[in-house]
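TL;DR need C-alpha cells for one chain.
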Amino acid sequence: MRIILLGPPGSGKGTQAQLLVQRYGIVQLSTGEMLRAAVAAGTPVGLPAQDIMASGALVPDEVVISIISDRLDQPDMKNGFILDGFPRTVPQAAALDDLLKKKHIKLDAVVELRVNESALLNRVETRVAEMRARGEEVRIDDTPEVLSKRLASYRTLTEPLIHYYSERRKLLTVDGMMTIEHVTREINRILAAIGAVEPKAAAPKRAEMAARKTAKPVAKKAAKTAGKPTRAAAKAGKVASKGSKKAKKTARKTGKKAGRTIAKRGAKKASKKVTKRRAKR
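>> reply
TL;DR here they are.
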C-alpha cells in the first residue's frame, strides 16, 4: 500500500498515519526525519542539505526528491509507505510522480482529511484556555494566531494538490471532523474498496466458514464413534438378558426335577412302611 495523506494542520494526519503503520506494517515517510537522517549519515544528498538547513532556508525540491529516492530503495519499503507532509506543492507532486514512474512504483491513493477550519480554531482556543486555567505552559506554535497563519499557508500552497490529484483520479476524501475511530474506519474502508489493502473484516468470516466446514465432518465422525460403544453396550445387554432368561428356565427345570425326585423317594418310603405293617399282621 502506497498512499499520501493530505490535510491542514490539526486535521489528525499524524495520528492516522501512525494507526495505518501499526495496522499494515508499512513505513511512514517524513521528509523532515529523512533530511535529518541523511545529514547525520553524511550521505552525498545529506551533505548539501546540511548547509541549507543550517542557514534556515528551505531545502530545494530536487534535494528532497533525491532523499526520498534513496529511502524508497531500502528493504523495509517492500510493504509500502505513507507520505505525510510531502508533497506540499504541485511542482513537488509532479516531481514525485516522475520519480515513482521511474522506479515502477504505483501510488494507490491520496487520502484527504477534510476539516472545518472554524471548528479547528475553536478547538485550539478551548485547549489553550484550559491549559492556562490549569497553569500549564502553552507552546508558542499552539495558539489560534499561529494556526490561522498555517491554515492560510496551506490554502495557498497545498490546497491546489486536491485539484491535481482529483484530475488523476487518485483523491479520496474523508471527513476529518469525525472521531479518531470513525476516521480510521473510513480510511480502511475506502482503501479496501479500491483494492489497496486486504479487507480485514473478510478474514474472520472466511476463517469462521472454514472452521464450520471442518467441524461438521468431525462432529459426524465423533457421533458415529460415540454411537458404536452404545450399540455394543446394547448388544451386550441383550446377551446378558438372554443369559438371565436361560438361567431362570434352567433353575425352574432343576427345581421341578428336584421336587419330583423328593416326591418319588417319599412315596417309596411310605410304600415300604405299609408293606412291613401288613407282614407283621
